[in-house]
Every structure is written in C-alpha cells, then in structure tokens.
Model the fold of this input.
Amino acid sequence: MANFAKPSVPRFSVDVYQNEYLPEGGREVNAIVTVTATGGGTLGGGLSPATSDGRPSAAVAIMVDCSGSMDYPPTKMRNARDATAAAVDTLRDGTHFAVIAGTHVATEVYPGDGGLAVASPTTRHRAKQALRRLASGGGTAIGTWLRLADRLLSSADVALRHGILLTDGRNEHESPEDLRAALDACAGRFTCDARGVGTDWEVKEVTGIASALLGTADIVADPAGLAADFTRMMETAMGKEVADVALRVWTPVGTTLRYVKQVAPAVEDLTARRTEAGPRAGDYPTGSWGDESRDYHLCVEVPPAGLGREMLAARVSLVVPQPDGSAQNLGAQGLVRAVWTDDVTASTAISPQVAHYTGQAELAQVIKQGLDLRKVGDFDGATAKLGRAVQLASASGNADTAKLLSKVVDVVDAATGTVRLKTRVAQADEMTLETRSTKTVRVKK
Done:
C-alpha cells in the first residue's frame, strides 16, 4: 500500500548566461540556461505516491537480451545474469520491479504474474533465483520488450517509472517502423537507459532508444564490466526524486523560438518534442531528476528594434505536467533578454557559455559525420571532420572525447586539427567513440 505522504524532492533553480546586447537590426538571441536540482525541498503542490521513508515511489523494469547470440561467448549470458542480479540488489526497499527476458518476444521472468514485485530481502532473493532460468535462444524484437515493460510499469501507482535495457545484437526480427511505434507509445510514460554489450549491435538503435525515452546510452564492450555498469545505472535511478519535469519556454508576440537543446551532460535536441502549453508557451521534456545540474541552449529570433530598446526574449520555468492538462510549477524561473546598442564591443562579445556549448554541439556533429564518412570510404572527408573534432575537443578541454578520438586517428597537431586516420581501428574503439560522441564537458564558470 503506497503512503501518500508529501515526498522530499529537489529544489530547482534556473540561471541564465548570455550576452543580451544586439547591434542595430540584430535578431538572434542565444542563451545557456542552467537548471540545478538540490535536495531538501518539497514540491509544495499535489501529493505523489511515496514510500514509508518519504521518498518518491518508483518502478523499474530490467529488460535482458536473451537472443541466441548471447551464447557467444557463453560468458556473455552469465555476465548478463550477474549484472541483473547486481541491479536487483541495488533496488531500495519498496521499489516495484520486474525482470523481462527479451528475444523475438518478451517474457516475464520475475515476478511472472503480469504485475510487479515490491523490493524486499525476500523478493530480491526470489528474483535472483529466477534469473537462473535465463537462457539464450531466439531473435531480437526490442519493441516487444519495451511494450511489455510499459504494461508492467503502468500497473503500479508510483511517482517514477524507469527501464534498463541490455542488447547484444541488431533489432532484426521487427521492422524499424515497429520499433519506432513502440518508442512513440512509451515516450513520456517511462525513462530508459540502454546498453549495448560486445560489438555486434547497432549504435544508432541503442542511442535512439535512450534518446526517445530520455535515458542514457553506452557501450559495455567487455561483458565482464556489465555488473558494475548495471549497479551504477540502478544507483542513479534510485537517486531520482521527481519525474516528468518539463522546461516551459514562453516567448512574446513576434518572436520565434528556433531551437531548444540540452547541451550538458550530453547533447540532445529537444526542439521537435515541444508540447503546446498555452498562448506562446511550449513544454520540452527533460525526464526524471535527482540532485544534478543540466545546461540547455535556447536560440530565439526577435523582431528588430531601435537602438536603446530592450525586450524580454523568453521566460523559462520548470513544470510537471498533470494528467488533467494543468501543470505544477516548480518555482524556478529565468529570463532571456535582448537590448539593442551601438556599442560595438558590447554587441560583438560572445558569451563564454554560449561559445563553449556551440563548440560542444559541433563536436558531437562532426564526430558522427566523420565516422559515417569513414564507413563509406571517404577517407579525405573523414579526416577533415575528425580533425575538426580533435581541434574542438582540445580547445574545450573535453579530455575524454579527445582520448577516444586518439583511438581512431593519429593526432599530429591538436590545436590545428591536423590528424591522420589510423589504418586499423578496433571495432570496440570506433563504437565507443560513436556512442559517447554526444557527451559534453561543463563550461568552466
């Protein structure tokens, strides 16, 4: 029985970084909006289901690839069982959960009664016993896994719903349209972290799942690393305290919101995910939050104005949309401004935050372009793109991405982006670079 106490959730704050000055006739306003959630606050609004200790209630579905390829090598399936057991051990008491075996169909492994178990020492032990029944065989139809996870997760009256999905192969037993339809059906209903194990899976499929369901994507090239990765994922999921937060952006008459992108901790374009929220306002989904900070890039086109004029270009707030169409405001707001000036120094200055994240977004883009060109044999084009990536990674201090790039190219001069493509590149290294290409470093404030 859920305890409908008012749970403790983060307090949200919004900070805006921009150069608000435009030259005469200037129309484009760019701003970085930093959203920070810190523990100890309360929503101060409607009640959400909570556990007995006052924390938000949660439900988790773990989807484990059990297709035939998981038997090659045999240690892969054993590592997947161990990783799932580690994730189950990380569940906090009171969390609703289920384990799903995924092949060309989806099968409930535990609890297996069409619902969810509630985490306790007893149910965690039973779940780990049930994992012994996981065996390889069959194909891969990830959409069916997601739809079963959605049905199970929706059966619980909880505040947070989350999935963890592991696959080792390509989604060969359903069409791309079927997977897209499943993702569309699940979007906004639960978040999902996706992992590819080994090197026989499709990067764009795994990253596409995580993107659609507002989760993280990564590669675990060595199956022996699965348990540690699953433990970290579950710890993060257990740290979430408020679900379905939306970035609400209001703009005045005459303005156009050109794009909204998350730019840290990873690049994710949210522009097309807008849901209308009243006159000149739209909501952009950000998923679940714990104690953390994320950065967003807003680009607004404003009507030209005379020198000395100023206007509010956008107002940013945080809300939790409600089933009845209303929204619960989380009490944080930021303002994006535009001021027209003939001071050339002021109007030509670029905000360090905007410059940094513009570079990080370009970094993600040129890595993907470079790897795609390399795959089709355009080595000159790939060299140019990946050289630019090396230059951007070096300039922004993105050491992790720079290290991954060095596995694919020989760096002659990082500052100028002079590189040579390596003749031989391990598949795991190329896939790791592609999977992690959108991860960014925070701007040094």
Summary: Residues 1-7, 40-48 have pLDDT under 50 and may be disordered.
